[in-house]
Amino acid sequence: MSAIVFSPVFTQKLFSSMPDLSRKRERERLAVRHTPYFQRIGRGAFLGFRRGPDTWSARFRSRDGKQNHKFLGGPLEFDEAKRQAETWIAKLAGSALRGVKRATVREAVDAYVADLRRHGRVDTARGVESRFGTVLYEDLLADLDLECVTRDDFLEWRDRLLEGRQPRTVNRHARSVRPPSTKRSNSAMSEIRRPGG
Q: Do residues 133 and 106 make contact, with C-beta atoms less than 8 angstroms apart?
């Protein structure tokens, strides 16, 4: 009996094509089908949504390779379905799943600096901490919830940075805060780098 081996490209396409079930509008756009659409919520753990009856399920592959399924029921919001799935999976696995910690911009930056230090990048961490201390820690943006920060919040932050600074200095500061996923020029966040223009 031979094993099926998937190429990394196939696997990447498979997981990148998974819908974001946390967004109601994206769930509404899914085609009605018998099998659920799944979203990964942890290692070997998936939350499933079945379009049509709009029901939720959970799937978990244990260490021994056994696939476990649980029907979570009907009209639930994403957060409630995910909480039920994580609770069930935690009981099944015998340990809690690591979830996304909802935090402020300041806490996210502090976690980033701590991660740099943990990986031995002490000088980089010191520089990042210094720059963030100058342009972010004393600003209103630092205390906003990370999930609630909008593009407009960053644009307003950029405008506050312009007071008493050269545009190229503001560009340098804005690039240090910009997430890595926004390096493409067609990104909405790319406007943050262009003060006055």
A: no
59: left (phi > 0), else alpha (psi -120 to 50), else beta? beta
Domain limits of the chain?
A: 18-93, 105-193
- CB of 104 within 8 A of CB of 144? yes
Q: How far apart are CA 81 and CA 102, in angstroms?
A: 18
| Contact assessment for residue 46 and residue 89, using Cβ atoms and an 8 Å cutoff | no
Contacts of 142 (CB under 8 A, 6+ apart): 104, 105, 106, 109, 136
59 in Cβ contact with 49 (< 8 Å): no
Fold of 18-93: Double Stranded RNA Binding Domain (3.30.160)
For residue 167, what are the contacts with CB-CB under 8 A and spacing of at least 6?
195, 196
DSSP, residue by residue, 116-183: HHHTT-HHHHHHHHHHHHHHTTTSGGGGSBGGG--HHHHHHHHHHHHTTS-HHHHHHHHHHHS-GGG-
pLDDT per residue over 54-107, tens digit each?
A: 899 999 988 777 888 888 877 888 899 999 988 888 887 765 445 455 688 888
pTM (predicted TM-score): 0.42
